[in-house]
Amino acid sequence: MRQVRLPAGEKLIALTFDDGPWPVTTEAVLDILKRYQARATFFWVGKNLERYPQIARKVVEAGHAVGDHTWSHQYHKVTPQAAAKEIDSTAALIARDTETSTRLFRPPGGNLKNGLAKYALSKGYTVVMWSVSSADTDPKAPWTAFADNVLRGARPGTIVLMHDGGGDRRRTLEALPVILEGLQQQGYRFVSVPELLAQAQPQELEASRARPAQARP
User: Top-level EC class, please (predicted)?
Assistant: First the structure.
């Protein structure tokens, strides 16, 4: 796994949110991020974007980055034709509904071997993984565990995995202010994934076009 390394002294961190856009939760995340003047990156599922384009537009209008997370969030192996449909249809909807484009892709479940990442790389996407997971899809964990996971694992250059869609994310909303405040107290600045990659060493940035990006110090 390729790891992006930042110049010494750069305390940057990228929060990412998967599986939206989602009613109530996504807009609540936006409000919290605004409170802390934090930029983030949202990886969208096409079928959710089709249902909630107005929420997606609010994400873009707030200045956050977006990425492609396939149309239907499948984990199984797919043919090249199916991979093209999953990724291209979502990309087309992003362009139509938000008047923006993306070259960021995150495979559902982080699966790099089912054909989706291979297709994305062939089309010039940067495949973005993560270096710290909040584990906020754990149905039994309290929200404090999500915050602890991030605060303990954070390092300069970390990409954090969280979720704003795909289910009940009230615990994520409870954890997010604690995460933001705790990281700010440690001197971190919150940037989007493109902003994080822009701070990488030149050879690292070039490599991101060919291999999955997982940022760490």
Answer: hydrolase
- Whole-structure pTM value: 0.92
Asked whether 157 and 217 are in contact (CB, 8 A), the reply is yes
Give the three-state DSSP class for 162.
Answer: strand
Average pLDDT of the chain is 92
Which residues participate in catalysis according to the annotation?
18, 163
What's the CA gap between 213 and 121, in Å, rounded? 11
**68-104 CB burial, b ≥16 within 10 A, e <16:** bbbbebbeeebeeebbbbbbebbbebbeebbeeebeb
Q: Are 188 and 159 in contact (CB under 8 A)?
A: no
How confident is the model at residue 201, as a pLDDT? 59
Domains belonging to the chain, first-starting first, are 2-215 (3.20.20.370)
Pairing of strands 40-44, 12-20: parallel
**Nearest Cα to 106, choosing from 161, 156, 63?**
161
Query: In this model, does residue 216 exceed pLDDT 60?
Result: no
Structural contact between residues 119 and 83, judged by C-beta atoms closer than 8 angstroms: yes
Residues in the chain: 217
Shortest CA distance to 197 belongs to which of 135, 134, 150, 129?
129
Q: How many whole angstroms separate alpha carbon 12 and alpha carbon 130? A: 14
The three-point CA angle 133-162-71 to 5° equals 115
